[in-house]
Amino acid sequence: MSRERKVHRSDICTGANGTSTRDIPPKERCLKTNNPDPFLFSLLPIDCQIHIFSFLSEVEKCTAALVCSDWSKLMRTPRLWRVADFMRLGAFLSGMGGVLVSARDFERWKEWVHQYSYHLMSRGASLLILRASFDLGDQRTKWADFLLKFLDHVHCGELQDLELNWTLTHLEPMDIYPPGSMAQICLAKTDQFNSFQTLFERLTRTSHKIRRMKLPFDWSDHSVFLLTQFQHLKTLELNYFWVFKGVRPETMQQLTKSLPNLKTLILQVLVPVKDLGVSYPLESKSLEFLDVSQSRGLVFNHLDLPSLKELRVKKTIRGIILSRRTRVALQTRWSCLYDLLKSGTPRLQVFNSHLLLPGWRTQSYLELSEVLLQSCYCIDHTDTWLL
After folding, report:
1. Distance CA 15, CA 12 (A)
2. Domain map (residue ranges) of the chain
3. C-beta of residue 127 within 8 angstroms of C-beta of residue 84
4. DSSP type of residue 321
5. Among 242, 236, 306, 230, which residue's Cα sits nearest to residue 270?
6. Do residues 137 and 189 lie in contact, with contact meaning Cβ atoms separated by under 8 Å?
7. What is the pLDDT along the chain (387 residues), one digit of tens a residue?
8. DSSP 210
9. DSSP 147-174
């Protein structure tokens, strides 16, 4: 029995011409023997190898690059580096919003940001996702220049998901913003706005395939024009830029009409007191989900949303004291939200998490009336001297 085992091992280790299989390269050995090498990864097509590596985390990819020279070359494939997330707060903080930290921690985080960007740029990352939160008006740290340089050295042609807060740096030292006058604040906002438009113009040229976008928005005519260039947008979330920055009704209407593939729209619009009597039209043939519950003072005068299935809206009492005569004169100019929904949203099914009954358009009912009291600004649904 031991003799048979010995002969069997000899057959494996010696080829037909008497040569040892140990002298045969691993790939050929796998094909010429009946006992193939148990690790056949190197025999897979390159695209398959890259696809397998794509399931690794960034840290795991860097570790894999240390295995051998072939893997090191593979780890430099741009398609393996699809995510640039500058909102992870490095290795020492995670899962938090904007954070105030000590100056030392801020310097550590800034160093991590630059190392992380160099890591992605050196590999020519081909991004699908970009998440960043930097104050683009900060003249000391020059975050605007940093982001522009980063975009120059990575590939953004396939970028699909953009989350960019250009008004706030994710991590800030506690003493970075000393108290300033209103003129200084306005100047800082102008710097932010100008840097954002420069960056946004760059993205319209390189990343027109974006499908999801979340960012503060200034609602200027030029920014709206740039945003309408992203014709593949399906999900759009626009937050307020500054409490004193208003939105013109025709601008909002133009935006929603110009995005033919938009399915989900989340708006945070803070209507300033000077625009208290302004109401807004909204038109979109494709929109299915609309959330304006975080807005303040947003009143609609026209809705043309034939595909809308779900709506979230909340009335916000801002504490503005008006005389009854002034209040009534103002509210009589506002359309009832119920009437707008009946005529402009033929497919609406859910209103503020309330599943509408089949006959809701022909006759209101108690639950629907309660939802309207929480969401409609018209005189029939707001019996108070506060607006």
Report:
1. 7
2. 1-43
3. yes
4. B
5. 242
6. yes
7. 444 444 444 443 444 445 444 454 544 544 444 444 455 777 888 888 888 888 887 778 888 888 888 888 888 888 888 999 998 764 344 444 455 667 888 888 899 999 999 999 998 999 999 999 999 998 888 999 999 999 999 999 999 999 999 998 888 765 555 556 767 778 888 899 999 999 999 999 999 999 999 999 999 999 999 999 999 999 999 999 887 788 999 999 999 999 999 999 999 999 887 888 889 999 999 999 999 999 988 999 999 999 999 999 998 876 676 777 777 777 778 899 999 999 999 999 999 999 999 999 999 999 999 999 999 988 888 765 455
8. -
9. HHHHHHTSB-TT--EEEEE-S--SEEET
Do 346 and 306 form a contact (C-beta atoms < 8 A)? yes
Element at 281 (helix H, strand E):
strand 280-283
- At position 55, the amino acid (one-letter code) is F
Distance CA 263, CA 126 (A): 26
Q: Would the pTM count as exceeding 0.85?
A: no
Residue 349 near residue 356 (C-beta atoms within 8 A)? yes
Residue type present at position 353: S
Place of tokens 């649904």: 381
As a whole number of angstroms, the distance between CA 121 and CA 277 comes to 50
Judge residue 206's burial from the number of C-beta atoms within 10 Å of its C-beta, 0-12 exposed, 13-18 middle, 19 or more buried: middle
- Residue found under tokens 């050929």: 28
Which two tokens mark 43?
């025999």
